[in-house]
Amino acid sequence: MNAESSGPENPLSDWSLDPFARSTIPSARRVREIWAIGGGKGGVGKSLISSSLSMALARLNQKVIAIDLDLGGANLHTTLGVDFPQLSLGDFISGRTENLKDCVISTGNPNLSIISGAQDAVNAAQLSSSQKTRLFDAFHQLDADYLIFDLGAGTGVHTIDFFLHADVGIITMLPEPTSIENAYRFIKSAYFRKLRTCPQLESVYPLIELAMDGKNGKGIKTPSDLFREVNAANPEAGLRLREQIARFQPKLILNQIRAQTDVEVGLSVKSVSKRYFGIDIDYIGYLEYETNVWQAIRRKKPFMVEFPDSRIAASIDRITNYLYRKGSAIKPSAL
Ligand SMILES: Nc1ncnc2c1ncn2[C@@H]1O[C@H](COP(=O)(O)OP(=O)(O)OP(=O)(O)O)[C@@H](O)[C@H]1O
Ligand SMILES: [Mg+2]
User: How far apart are CA 310 and CA 312, in angstroms?
Assistant: First the structure.
């Protein structure tokens, strides 16, 4: 079970402006990019995708740290073939260790390390704002080119904040109604949380708060409805809101594809998100259902190592190359 299921269901129930804004991050940041893998639902392949993307990036000669942010449900270490280590994120969160670098464990691949998740669900779920700020600051001090966040299930406030903190937010989903529903819920939660923590939109926070209540009297159900209301109330804020909408571009990976019609589910989600929410989703690829995934998991071996010639491994390489090249256009080293 995910630790956050005992915490606030609605990510906006914690209305305080979170102090995780990028302005708190020291300018000399070592980490080039953070990718977060979420999805709203359990068992949709977040950990498999996190570990596989981490391995593919490491093969591109990038220094990668995969971080298990499934607070209380940590198992990323197993998908990377590593035993649960002595020091984990929980020790840093609780203050048992001062230095997050002490929690970085080698996977045997010189380019790839892992920080295992907190096993102590209670402490992790009670992560305070100041602990979260300390955590984000520590992430950026790590000695890595890329951090890969493996998120827990659900739309709890911490999960959404981890997702929003990343440079690249990836949503993973199965072509099944329950998973699709949860993915939409996740997208909406992340979207509203992003707006609610954007200082430039302070003047329209009451409208954003109202929009989060699905039964609000103004009939605001989607981000597009919100834009209409904000624009009518304050055209300048409407412009800023439009900017924020344009900046929110989650990526989508469809997992466990068994037929061509499944592939098209990703296209429908993309077009529905655009039409009804005004949100641009970048559908970056899909992974087929392959029976050898459980074999790798049962052997506690990374899938990419056990089955390097599989179709999943080829898709992961393609997706990683795409994101890597896209990101490299803005990396300082590429300027
Ligand atoms: N493409 C795939 N083909 C076959 N099986 C898969 C595939 N992707 C994931 N699985 C199976 O689904 C299970 C869940 O995968 P994984 O643990 O990566 O999901 P998760 O989203 O991280 O779950 P949780 O929310 O519990 O952390 C795994 O046991 C794995 O066997
Ligand atoms: Mg997982």
Answer: 5
Is 187 inside any structural domain?
no
Cα separation, 86 vs 77, whole angstroms: 12
Does residue 190 form part of some domain? no
Do 216 and 164 reside in the same domain of the chain?
no
Q: What is the CATH number of the domain that holds 30?
A: 3.40.50.300
pLDDT in tens, 97-143: 999 999 999 999 999 999 998 776 555 567 888 889 999 999 999 99
Cα three-residue angle 215-221-225, rounded to 5 degrees: 130
Note down the domain range covering 290: 3-180+250-334
> Is the predicted pLDDT of residue 35 greater than 90, yes or no?
yes
Closest ligand 1 atom to residue 312 Cα is: 1
Q: 4-18, 82-96, 201-215: which range is least confident on average?
A: 4-18
Domain count, the chain: 2
Question: Is the predicted pLDDT of residue 279 greater than 80, yes or no?
Answer: yes
Kindly state if the Cβ of 102 falls inside 6 Å of ligand 1.
no
Nearest CA to ligand 1 atom 29: 294
> How many C-beta atoms surround the C-beta of residue 78 within 10 A?
18
Q: Mark whether 25 and 61 lie in a shared domain.
A: yes
Closest residue by Cα to atom 31, ligand 1, is 294
Kindly state whether residue 143 falls inside one of the protein's structural domains: yes
Residues 31 and 51 in one domain: yes
Encode pLDDT of 301-314 as tens digits: 999 999 999 999 99
Burial class (CB in 10 A: 0-12, 13-18, 19+), 97: middle
